[in-house]
Amino acid sequence: MAGIWVYAEHRDGTIRKVTFEILGEAKKLAEQKGEELCAVLVGADVEGMASKLGAYGAERVYCVEAESLSGYTTGGFTKALSDLVQQEKPSILLLGATANGKDLSARVAGRLKVGLATDCTGIAVDDAGTLQARRPMFAGKVYAEVSFSDVTPQMASIRPNVLLALEPDETRKPEVIKITPDVKPEDIRIAVKDIMKTGGEKPDLTEAEIIVSGGRGMKGPENYHILEELADVLSGVVGASRAAVDAGWRPQSDQVGQSGKVVTPNLYIAAGISGSIQHLAGMGTSKVIVAINKDPEAPIFKKADYGVVDDLFKVVPPLTEQVKKLKAE
Amino acid sequence: MEIIVCLKQVPDTEAEIRPTPDNTEINYEGIKFVMNVYDEYAVEEALQIKERVGEGTVTIVTLGPERAVESIRTALAMGADKAVHLDDPAFGGGDAYSTAKALAKAIEGMSYDIIFCGKQAIDDDLAQGGNILGEFLNLPSITGIVKFDLSEDKKKATVQRQIEGGIEVLEVSLPAVFTATKGLNEPRYPSLPGIMKAKKKELKPIKLADLGLSEEEVGKKGAQIQVLKFSLPPVRQAGTIVGGDTPEEKAENLAKLLREEAKVI
Amino acid sequence: MLPAREILWNAGDVRVVVYILAAIPILIFAYTLYERIRLWRIGGQERRLDQLGARVRSLITVALGHTRTLRYRYPGIMHLFIFWGFAILFLGTLTIFVQEDITLPIWGITFLHGDFYLFYSLILDLMGLLAIIGVLMALTRRYIWRPAMLDNKADDAITLALLLAILVTGFVVEGARLAAQQPPWGRWSPVGWVSASLFFSEATSHGVKTIHKVFWWVHLGLAFTFIGYITYSRLLHIISSALSIFFRNLNPPAALRPIEDMEEAETFGAGKLEDFTWVDLLQLDACTRCGRCQDNCPATFTEKPLNPKKVIQDLKLLFQEKGKRVIADMRVWGVKGEKASASSSQERAMIGEAILEDEIWSCTTCGACIDHCPVFIEPYPKLLEMRRYLTLMESRFPPEVQLAFRNMENNSNPWGIGASTRGDWAKELEVRTLAEDADAEFLLYVGCAGSFDDLNKRVSEAMVRILRAAGVNFGILGREEGCCGDSARRLGNEYLFQIMAQQNIEVMKGYNVKKIITLCPHGYNALKNEYPLFGGEFEVYHYTEILADLIAQGRIKFSKELNLEVAYHDSCYLGRHNHIYDPPRKILRTLPGVRLVEMERSREKGFCCGAGGGRMWMEEHLGTRINHARIEDVVKCNPQLVGTACPFCYTMLVDGIKEKELEDRYRARDIAELVREAMG
User: Fold this and answer.
1) Is A209 left (phi over 0), alpha (psi -120 to 50) or beta?
2) Is the CATH number 3.40.50.960 carried by domain B2-222?
3) Pair A146, A260 in one domain
4) Least crowded by CB within 10 Å, which of A186, C40, C80, C650?
5) Contacting partners of chain B (3+ CB pairs under 8 A)
6) Are A223 and A260 contained in the same domain?
């Protein structure tokens, strides 16, 4: 009996959001194919999370539990997941395109000798029930419609924040199947010595989803707190233009631009940055660009999705308030 | 210390990428090709390890058309010792799976302690090759490393792997496969004597027949996924200037637009 | 009685003694000079015996005529006095030697008598006086005024004291002789006459003779000391500076020396002294520490670690250290200089010890150091040779430089914007490319800034509209155009430069291009002065030359009054390096309602914007910002607008005005934009 499987990635006892997003879309595929939607949890103690997966649409949840799986290892998780897949033979296996999701999916695909599409932004099945995926290539310069060979499972990893999760329905109770995997130390081969959390601190500029950058228009280091406050309410980080770094207002590591860091956040807010070509090269591929500058001729406006022509000192603080309000809603 | 670096040649990040009129392929005409950026970190790390250890060989393994020689030479100019080039029309058009298959077959017969790859190739962005290669060679693999330390006895490596919100510190016995990402090092710029020397270094071409694989196992025919159709992303809308009589009003309108239209907050 | 003078009069017949005494310093001088020449020749080859006529002409105008020295009025006159004073005094002494030891003993001819003798006495006396004035001026300047451009060493004091002592004792001797002899023509030696009446009016004849004898020997001793001291002191510049002038670079000043035979060469650039050419090493000895280079250096002015005088002096010190060992080896073993130098291992490193990397990277290649050097020493090309070494041999440069190199390699522009979009700025204007129409008379070579930088794209656009209005038949290369390579070359990456130059030349030749208009002075310099060595011979014009011509021909008509006070900022690569000072000014003067004013530092003294020499692509962490210093010049001059004709200058000035928050008072615009505006 085939099925559409979603690998449920979890961290610190919480299922990652992308899993629910995949379940939401996979539900449609399962209905179309007339197959069951299943989720797979792998870990040392995961059964408690199964019901949540049910609420988001999984009809069955496999809980693959072993002490040796208490932390993610490529070898251990690959063994556990691929053994189960080989046993149960799902038609489609979907994962989140996170660091571990990409890592696991690639190794599993290699072991199962099946096709895998990475970082997909859309999935569907054709009339024959074969998976079709849409994915960006060349960092999003083009998109590709990908088809798979008929070796199953057909695998895809899905980009977070793209698909829509279903409204959770706590009344839906999934069938929970406990699996004891056959994972030996020689399957793992890698020892996790430490996990240094950087979550307490801000993510690196290159990883940040939201960046609030300030340039020459900030007038001095003492004014950056208004950007920090905005970044805080947006859960973003603060960057700076070369001018601000040159002036000694911000550390070199904050510099966005050609001679600093190249960033691709979802949202880039440029405050008091005119948009020298070097700067534009460093942030031009951001998904959404906002420019706040009092000079309407500033080149940054040509690249910005949203431009505010005004004094940043009068715009940024109320913007922070507005975002706070919206987030509170 | 024998180190192998898998290297791919890809279009430059600034290159304009367009599909052919029938949308089934990418139009590579007039495009500048360079060494994949993540592979540069891989090459650099291999060279640094060799320099630290004081002995060894860094071998470049590349699958790609004839033009890829240019990037191989760049790696040799940086200091790699020799290269093998899987250059056969049969290898073309593959996915990570069929490419890794050919690479694994080529590497099988070589001696190695460490295999480096880039985290992903910036053209197809699949980010699979390192792990599938590890699987085929039955080696442990670690993706996206930002730090590499070799143990005293050179039998183990302690690496740092970047994950969301943290860094994993992992220890693995060699040989193993590692994929490199930004932060691992700063790739060197080849010196002119290096460039000149690179022209004389060994570059061995490998054909399909040399690997003992069939045409069905490699390239497009051996691939598990296939691109049916390419399309361009929607063109970026011309920017909107956020209206409002006062700065406060503009701020309010902007927040709304970001929430409702752009959906980024 | 015929006016004449008894040679050796009171001194007695000491001829033989004098000649033996003279032989010592002359031999010392000759041998040590020979050693110096050997030392210079540890440097590499360089052909500097071409264009002999021009070389002799520079020797006459610059060395004898002091044309360059006189650019600084006071020290120029000071040196002129000392130089000509001593030169004539030396010739005077030589005249006596010729008469006494050649013409008289051989043919029995004397000529130092009669009117000629009187004239001779007068001239020599006046020259001595001139020299004294010169030395006093030097002492005043060096020790009382103490300008920042001078640094004082014991050698300076010793040399000046020696000069003064020679002159003063000379006049004491003359005064004593005149007092004792009381010749009727004594007044023809006015200074000696005054000296006689001042010092010896009361003295007895015997006393005067004694004093005369003593001072005669003292004067002689000092003169011989002088000869022996030359090669050990700054006096060497009498020889070395003259040689430096004679062997000056006669090529276009900003055309860098190409590295030839890159495939075969083993080292590139200068990592040690021997990697320089013999001319470079000679120049180290030609420097008199006059400080004009440092006085005009934008890096020094903005408190960066670079000071061209110090660079030359630090290299000279290293050269002296090395020279001592080489000479010691030479004297003991008679081995050749180069062998000896290779054996000296305890030598300080040239890069990193004698010259710091920050000094090497601080240079904007503005050329002021060369242009202001009275003896054509070339400080910045030496820095560029060191950059070549760092870049090509060691791959050692600030991280931004690596990025710029990569960008130029991959996309043929330092910004790294996709090469395929190079022609996009011209799309809306529908400018024809040579691919579409190869018959265009002119190629408009736009350059990277004009193609990619928003600010400078406006200049490209203005230029297109002007050329069209004037009916000029032109085309562009569009995406086939490549970076000229100026920045790569000046950042030491000769390899990359040559690749880019060859690509451009190939494309241009492919379209049979004859005449080129460039927007950027850096492209202008590269195409005009550097490409010919790589087979690219084109007629190259900067756009200001073309516009000035078109205006003069009446092909551009103005209809709009601009009503502006404009100061023109000279681009180094246009002005100093290529002597295009007038066309931009001519253009500005013809614009209706434009009043042209000059900043204090303009034309030959023009001050760099800070972006040359690849500095455009580098951070400016050290000292203060050069463009800010230039904006201060603007403030002093207080025009309404600064006109530029260079994309780098334009960017730097716009940034400077913004950074100094003077946007309300000043604007910067490119001249082409002003022309376009005035056309209505």
Assistant:
1) alpha
2) no
3) no
4) A186
5) A, C
6) yes
